[in-house]
Structures are given as C-alpha cells and as structure tokens.
C-alpha cells in the first residue's frame, strides 16, 4: 500500500454505502502509515464537518477543542435510550463545569433499537425448523444489533434472524473484512427459507 499522501499532508475521502468496509479500510491505511513512522488520523466526514462548524463558532479554525470523546450507544429499548442520552448530556456538562471547562455534547440518534415481535418470532422459529430441520435452528443471546432493518420493525411486526454462512473446514472470518467469505450454498438455503416463510405467512 502506497502512503505517499502522508509526505504531502494530503487528506483522502472514502465514499460508499453502509457496511462496505470504509472504516476497516481507513484503519488499515492509518495502520500502514504508522508502520512507516508517519502520523495518521481517521474520522468520519460528519465528525470532521461538525468540528469545523464548532471551530467557526469559537472563532478559531486551528484549535477546535482540547479533547474529543467518541463512542457508540446501543440499548434494548427507546425509553432507556432517551434516558441514557439525558444522562450523558448532564454528566458531561456537570463534570466539565466542575473542572472549569465546557462540554459540547452531540448525539446522533442513528438506527432505532431492533425489536423482534415475540408472536411472529415464535411462528418463524417453528417454520424454520420445518424447513431446515429442528437441529439446525438455534437460539442466540440478545444482541444490540445496529441495522437499518430496525426501521421496518418499528412500524410493523417483524423478526430478524441470522443465517449461518461458514464454509466447512474453514475458520470463521469477521464481517466487513477483506477476507470475509461465505459458503455460497447458504444463499440457496436463504432464498428457500425466505420463500417458505412468505408463503406460509400468506396462508
């Protein structure tokens, strides 16, 4: 990988849809730059623009703030999510004030929490067992999944499930990585299962 851009203090922008691997690619480029004894910094365009707006308000385009803290917030329901946002604002502002500083808190709400309708989920589990075999349908622990599918689940009864895609005798690779690979037979299973679920739910 060529990191010549670091010699010229040049920025670059990665553009693409959600989940295509922009964060992983950006991190890999910064990592390569560090191995070449250069300094690299990666952030989203949204965050960069927010800092520019803040620096404009402060009247200083060169020094935006002393410290930036960033995290991902996920919850299992909207009520706790709203409460958590209020707590983050209050604790951040009060803590900063106690040390003679100020805190500018911005929370991007992003995807809503992903809710599986209990009745539909139970029915889907039974149908999946009929199609795939009982031993091939497993329960997994609750997860704070961030997924645009959640928007649909907020409007109509929905259920979100995962389909195994691991190849036999191969290690599991992480999603959104350059070495992610699937057993293409799982695509046939997925199409068959989705078709079966649709037909049975229309009866």
Average predicted confidence as pLDDT: 81
What is the number of strand segments?
0
The radius of gyration over CA amounts to 23 Å
Distance between the termini: 55 Å
Shape: flat
How would you classify the helix and strand content by structural class?
mainly alpha
Helical residues, percent: 40-55%
State the CATH architecture of the domain at 118-202.
Orthogonal Bundle
* Continuous helix count: 6
CATH C-level label of the domain at 118-202: Mainly Alpha
Structural description of this entry:
By secondary structure, the protein is mainly alpha-helical. Among the domains are: 73-109; 118-202, Orthogonal Bundle (DNA polymerase, domain 1), CATH 1.10.150. 43% of the residues lie in helices and 0% in strands. The protein is built from 6 helices and no strands. The chain has helices spanning 22-35, 45-58, 78-98, 118-132, 149-153, 185-202. Helix 4 (118-132) packs across helix 6. The mean pLDDT is 81.
């Amino acid at each position: 990988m060529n990191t010549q851009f670091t010699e010229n203090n040049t920025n670059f922008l990665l553009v693409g849809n959600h989940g295509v691997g922009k964060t992983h690619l950006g991190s890999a480029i910064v990592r390569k730059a560090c191995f070449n004894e250069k300094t690299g910094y990666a952030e989203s365009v949204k965050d960069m623009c927010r800092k520019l707006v803040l620096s404009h308000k402060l009247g200083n385009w060169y020094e935006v703030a002393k410290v930036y803290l960033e995290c991902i917030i996920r919850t299992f329901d909207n009520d706790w999510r709203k409460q958590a946002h209020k707590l983050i604002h209050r604790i951040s502002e009060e803590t900063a004030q106690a040390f003679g500083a100020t805190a500018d808190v911005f929370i991007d709400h992003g995807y809503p929490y992903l809710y599986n309708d209990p009745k539909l989920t139970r029915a889907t589990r039974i149908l999946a067992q009929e199609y795939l075999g009982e031993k091939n349908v497993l329960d997994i622990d609750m997860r704070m999944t961030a997924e645009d599918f959640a928007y649909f689940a907020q409007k109509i009864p929905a259920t979100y499930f995962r389909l195994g895609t691991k190849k036999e005798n191969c290690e599991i690779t992480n999603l959104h990585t350059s070495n992610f690979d699937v057993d293409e037979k799982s695509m046939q299973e997925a199409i068959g299962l989705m078709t079966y679920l649709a037909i049975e739910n229309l009866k």
